[in-house]
Amino acid sequence: MTVDVAIVGCGVIGRKRAQALAGRGRVVAVHDVDSARAGALASELGTGTRVCADAKEAFEAASGGLAVVATTHDSLVRNAVQALEAGCHVLVEKPGARSHGELAEVAKAADNAARLARVGFNHRFHPAMLRAHELLASGRFGPVAVIRARYGHGGRLGYEREWRASRERSGGGELLDQGVHLLDLVRFFAGEPRLAYAVLPTLFWPMEVEDNAFLHLTLPESGHAWLHASWTEWKNLFSFEISCRTAKIEITGLGGSYGPERLTLYEMSPEMGPPTATTWEWPAGDHSWAAELDDVLAELDGGPALGAKLEDALGTLALVEEAYAR
Question: 54, 78, 200, 294: most buried, per Cβ within 10 A?
């Protein structure tokens, strides 16, 4: 399925989305508050991509197709609603909004427009996550008992002056940045969790939002999840462990600066003792962006989908708001 696409927000993520669309969609229009950045992306994409003076013009150019909204958090909802009103389906980048109430506005607009709206939680589409999902769905190892996950990076000089450090623009700190990916993956693997404990300190950066997030969640079927997202992880880190009744799944790395993406399945033998270990590794680049777009297009074509729907993102933001309220 090939559709017309408008991209609003032409920074790092907007560019990744544009590159992932190769052979999947025609980027007919782009817009960014920095017109030079929009022009640079349009030049990369070649003829047929128009640089628009505002987001409304870009969405109207792709009406009936797909709008990708990859702006700062304070502009996500406004642009997503405008895209839906222009007749576009929408893929809005995570977290989808600064709050549950804001994202509910997108859900209402999607219902009114009878259009699909999805939130871009691309981590579901890393090959290790898809393999883990298959293993868990097989039912071979029993229910999820424990999830232990860590996700973090450091910052850069001036990080405390960037938009992510402003509560008004971002809605929150590291919990809304990388922490929401961990929360979404917990929901992807184990169903709807409940928040038991949250501590959101600012340990290093002189800013008004948290630079670390520590959460304890309870899972369906009496399981538990322990999550730590950090902006003070000076060596980029991704680690996600899932323990079931008779096996453990360990995922490390996301490629690039996070190290090779690898999944190891440890299967318990009937006599217990040392488990049998099977390892898969994906040394190639990050194809999760393209895989998520394939999933969105499949859903538009009436097929099944694994990506995060609005109700998934609303559930994640409800947990975030509860954590911030504690």
Answer: 200
